[in-house]
Specification:
With 353 residues, the protein is α+β, with helices and mostly antiparallel strands. The protein has helices spanning 3-37, 94-123, 139-142, 162-171, 224-247, 259-272, 277-295, 303-316, 322-351; strands at residues 42-57, 63-77, 125-134, 150-154, 157-158, 176-183, 186-194, 197-199, 206-208, 212-218.
């Protein structure tokens, strides 16, 4: 391996860690910002984990730290159940605690939307869901699809972006799909649209031949926010659909990726794209949305799990016993760590294959 290749690989990994670190820091900054606005006592805001590299103690006693391991961070609040300060976490109202807990994931989702805006500004164009071309003799032509049709549903899935169409085509089992299009202001059902399926001789994977193309459009000022919203909705739903496929068994645990796998994907994608800024922004957006949604899952040790306990407290008009809640979160954290170890082992194994 040449020196330039080694340097390039190192730069790719550094870039991947930077992107991952930004996503986690933004998440913790969400907790921190909400905590400051709602007058919570904050003990420490840390970027990174492990041993401290540098730290600064503010006048109110709060510590701001940079730590050695770029794999996370945290916003530590005064959560001692025996704390007497009115600004301690447990002495704040339920809705204030819910706001602080949810703020991390919300910040990631906001960042995802902002990145969506930036990707469009960089590209200065977007791909529409309006049919531009149809192959002669194709199933689309036979089903009555016409140039100018706007595709609004494929197999019942609402279409936000052209990527939704691709997602449905790639995940269909038999190559026969139902479309809903808008033509001259009217919705039309195009059911049983047949696509030709072939099998790649080398990989054995089935390939569906696309029989139509859609328009690309130059970005206008009026398009920016609607298209950014569509892109954000596409990625958000993609994360939710992936979680659904994992739960239903379509994908196994071997398909999960942890920090090592994510770093690998980012670094490889960066190299393959020639460090294309638009492509890297798309990856950053997906990770940010993923972090936001994953943390809102109602599982112990995650923000979503803590929100569940706060909702129960609001309904019962009294909190759960701290010991009970702590044990449940500890068990959830232990299971999460075991899952992370399993996923990291798979990530490393896939790298050295």
């Amino acid at each position: 391996m040449s020196v330039s290749s080694v340097v390039s690989s190192i730069l790719n990994v550094v870039l991947a860690f930077v992107i991952l670190m930004i996503m986690v820091t933004i998440h913790e900054f969400g907790h921190y910002t909400a905590g400051k606005l709602l007058k919570f006592k904050i003990n420490e805001f840390s970027v990174g984990m492990g041993p401290k590299i540098i730290s600064h103690k503010k006048k109110d006693g709060q510590l701001v730290s940079l730590r050695a391991l770029p794999l996370g961070g945290y916003c530590s609040m005064d959560e001692d159940e025996e704390a007497v300060s009115e600004n301690s976490f447990r002495n704040k109202s339920v809705w204030r605690r819910m706001a602080v807990i949810a703020a991390g994931a919300i910040m990631n989702l906001i960042l995802g939307f902002l990145i969506s805006i930036v990707t469009l500004l960089v590209a200065q164009q977007y791909t529409t869901n309006i049919v531009a071309e149809i192959s002669d003799g194709s199933g689309c032509q036979a089903a009555g699809m016409q140039v100018g049709d706007r595709i609004v549903k494929v197999n019942g899935l609402h279409i936000f972006t052209a990527n939704d169409i691709i997602y449905q085509l790639r995940n269909d089992e038999d190559g026969v799909l139902d479309f809903v299009v808008v033509r001259d202001g009217r919705k039309l059902d195009l059911n049983g649209v047949k696509f030709q399926l072939t099998v790649d001789e080398e990989t054995g994977e089935r390939v569906l031949n696309y029989d139509f193309k859609v328009y690309a459009k130059k970005l206008g000022a009026a398009d920016l926010l609607p298209q950014a919203g569509n892109k954000f909705c596409y990625y958000s739903r993609l994360v939710l659909l992936s979680l659904k496929d994992l739960i239903t068994g379509k994908y196994g645990l071997n398909n999960l990726q942890g920090p090592v796998g994510i770093v690998t994907v980012i670094s490889e994608s960066a190299q393959e794209s020639g460090f294309d800024i638009g492509f890297l922004l798309e990856i950053a957006m997906l990770i940010s949305v993923n972090v936001g949604i994953f943390n809102l899952l109602p599982l112990p040790a995650l923000d979503g799990g803590r929100l569940v306990f706060l909702i129960i407290e609001a309904m019962r008009k009294k909190p759960m016993k701290p010991e009970t809640e702590g044990m449940i979160h500890f068990a959830g954290f232990a299971l999460l760590m075991l899952l992370m170890l399993f996923v990291t082992f798979n990530d490393v194994k896939n790298i050295i294959k």
